[in-house]
Amino acid sequence: MQDGVMREWLETSHLAGGNVAYIEQMFEAYLDDPTAVSDEWRKVFDALPSDGKATDTKMSDVREQFREAAKNKLKQSGGGSSVSDQKQVKVLQLINAYRFRGHQHANLDPLGLWKQDTVPDLSLDFHELSKDDLDREFNVGSLAVGSETMKLKDIHNVLENIYCGSIGAEYMHIVSTEEKRWIQQRLEGNLGKAKFDKEQQKKILRELISADGLEKYLGSKFPGAKRFSLEGGDSLVPLLKALISRSGEQGAKEVVIGMAHRGRLNVLVNVLGKKPQDLFDEFAGKHGESKGSGDVKYHMGFSSDFATPGGDVHLALAFNPSHLEIVNPVVVGSVRARMDRLGDKVGEKVLPITIHGDSAIAGQGVVQETFNMSQTRAYQVGGSVRIVVNNQVGFTTSKREDARSTQYCTDIAKMVQAPIFHVNADDPEAVVFVTQLALDYRNTFKRDVVIDLVCYRRHGHNEADEPSATQPLMYAKVKKHPVARELYAERLNESGAVSEDDAKQWVQDYRDALDKGEVVVEEHRPMRAHSVDWSPYVGNDWDVEYDYKVSAKKLKELAEKISQYPEEHKLNSRVAKVYQERQKMAKGDKALDWGFAESLAYATLVDKDVHIRLTGQDSGRGTFFHRHAVLHNQEDGSTYMPLNHIREGQGQIEIYDSVLSEAAVMAFEYGYATAEPKSLIMWEAQFGDFANGAQVVIDQFLSSGEQKWGRLCGLTLLLPHGYEGQGPEHSSARLERFLQLSADHNWSVCVPTTPAQVFHMIRRQQLRPVRRPLIVMTPKSLLRHPLAISEMDELENTGFQNAIGEIDSLDPKKVKRVVLCSGKVYYDLLKERRDREQDDVAIIRIEQLYPFPAEEVADIMQDYQHVKDFVWCQEEPQNQGAWYSSQHNFWAAIPSGAQLTYRGRDASAAPAVGYLSEHNKQQQKLVDEALTIK
Ligand code: AMP
């Protein structure tokens, strides 16, 4: 095996005599953590075969070989195992202990209230080192402090400074040796501190003055008004400015920020450059001309540009509802859209910054979902910088006893091995230092990183609140605690960097600037013409014209292309069969099924250079085996997408099977779609009812984002829906909820029933210059239903039909009842009526339930003005489906004097029954009742 390595080690070991115990311990230390030993030793150990590597050599054999080699060396030199060598190992272990657990002794809490457990590993005794050793010189191993040997007392001192000062670095949970070494070198090489020159120090002080100054100003001008003050976490302002500035220096063009309400107004004014006067006007209750319903000021987003040494960076603060943490995946989705637009595959040009609260980051599940997404193909953005404004209390809930079960609020970040830098917010230089470190880590390794800004909250949850009622001890401390700018000004005064008078003058200068009401951020730049133009979509309603036609020639050409794949790409036999059928459909030998018509819609769009993104839990194949847009080679597992092989330079379609989440992934796609109007963005649920895992996204963003914030979003939700006896959880996409949320033309809700309709619906969503969500109840059994087929010519010249009249050639005069319905039940009704050879009931399909197609339905109704008996038939229980939410539209559509009655399942708490036999009975009954005229 590694004779060469072993020999080299024996010849070059710095230890006199070679010490078996030393080597063994060194090796054990290496096994615990490869960064514990010096780089030379690591190289020796790395070269050994290990259990983890593909080798036959067992670790026990490797140990044995070391033992033998060391014994031989011992014999040759006639030496013995020296005490000093044993101590040397202990020193290395001490160093390692600081790296692992130093953060537990760090000085993180500005209020000094944290009860920190004593960590025995950080004492000399624990490592069998004593006072007598303090003046002895030891090798420092991999400690990156610039000298190879140091006295123990100096080693101990630097370890205390690096690991137990204002920064608590948690990074030893990272598996990658390279990343750990990188962090060590940055932390240890700087002795845990950055050196800032006077100019930089002045800048930091002025930023603290601005953070504090704004709150004081608002507090005095608008006493008692809620502003969710930043006070206590003032260093967030220098932190963010340093982060943005450095990211621009390192090549970022855009930064997207997500944050909850705490400190948001401060960030808006002091970082993003919102005009203070605009904020004051909002406090005074004024608001500009806006068509929508608006939102409170601490939820509003903002866009601006920010000058950095690398050029101007565009800043976008995401609009944010009160639901904590849900904005994070929205931000990441927005970042991915911007990356795609800039052709950035790795995350060099756009930086996501998410700002969390300490209780929320530990408490909200969407945080875990977002971490889990961070390195996956569909969602990666090259890492997010996550900042926790850790004010140690959640509204009135105390942190350790009630708010969480972990030591730190940030422990969730360890699931992706993100490094976590806890930092005392009252040490602004340490804050800026870790900010630089965190950003550099993110940019080097393209992974998430966390800054835990440990601070406090000067007031209650809001300014009208009384915090002492629930946190008496904490607030007794807070009341006496000086603000960060005072502490820092004092420090700079002592070091001679800034005089007391200057600091006072700057406080006054800032107040004067606020009085003027103009922008107070030096780096602020007016937003340059933005790369995305939303104007073609603004102000359009559903009736806007668009070109929906496709020529027969183009359809045939595309149909042929998307039903081909390379011969050597071996398909599973069932998939091959699907493609054989598609080839027949392309030739016109077979009617189109759902999967093919849907794929053809995508083909026509990518052929027009449209970029499409479709994600969902099984979207490549389709949960119900219908799509097969991604073909898996059975021999080597490789994939092939016919839709991406239409022509050179076509628009790309991306289809990803998503992580098993609803909330974060839907929020991500919302973020993507609100940042990119030109792409077609679709999210598909495995089963429609699973979308309720993302109810917050539906309620807070999709249904009302335009109304509240004026932000358009063309996201499409594909939600499988239909009563096929699969039980309460796989039948309903909860249509009623979407209909209940429908108002102000906020979105469209469709229930297409034919392949041609799904073709036109998808194309309409993209080609019509409207960017509002599309909610689709997609079918399951209809995917293969013999009646749910379309001919190629149905794709050519018609657009989407919002309502479809009777298709059989009934004589309208004979019609005594008209049944209105949507979705799959139509085919049950049609089949039954045909079986009965009944000609007195007409069936009308409402394919778009919202906005209700009153005109189209009125046209269809022309034939039935004599009819008095109208029925709404649905599969869903009476309290669900469209009956309660859309009934007013049905009433308005029928002739005056006619009656409208309900045929469907009885009201039910569960969406569907669990027993197939019961389901069949119910289904038969509702169809029968809809058709039988008594
Ligand atoms: P952002 O890049 O998000 O900062 O957006 C820049 C500008 O584009 C905004 O100030 C808006 O004028 C416009 N804009 C961005 N997103 C949307 C959207 N979803 N709907 C309408 N306008 C938008």
UniProtKB/TrEMBL annotation:
Coiled coil: none annotated. Its cofactor is thiamine diphosphate. Keywords: Oxidoreductase, Thiamine pyrophosphate. Gene3D superfamilies: 3.40.50.12470, 3.40.50.970, Multifunctional 2-oxoglutarate metabolism enzyme, C-terminal domain, TPP helical domain. Residues 592-785 form the Transketolase-like pyrimidine-binding domain. Pfam families: 2-oxogl_dehyd_N, E1_dh, OxoGdeHyase_C, Transket_pyr. Its EC number is 1.2.4.2. Transmembrane segments: none annotated. InterPro entries: 2-oxogl_dehyd_N (IPR032106), 2oxoglutarate_DH_E1 (IPR011603), DH_E1 (IPR001017), KGD_C_sf (IPR042179), ODO-1/KGD_C (IPR031717), THDP-binding (IPR029061), Transketolase-like_Pyr-bd (IPR005475). It is an enzyme of class 1 (oxidoreductase). Belongs to the alpha-ketoglutarate dehydrogenase family. E1 component of the 2-oxoglutarate dehydrogenase (OGDH) complex which catalyzes the decarboxylation of 2-oxoglutarate, the first step in the conversion of 2-oxoglutarate to succinyl-CoA and CO(2). This is oxoglutarate dehydrogenase (succinyl-transferring). It comes from Idiomarina piscisalsi.
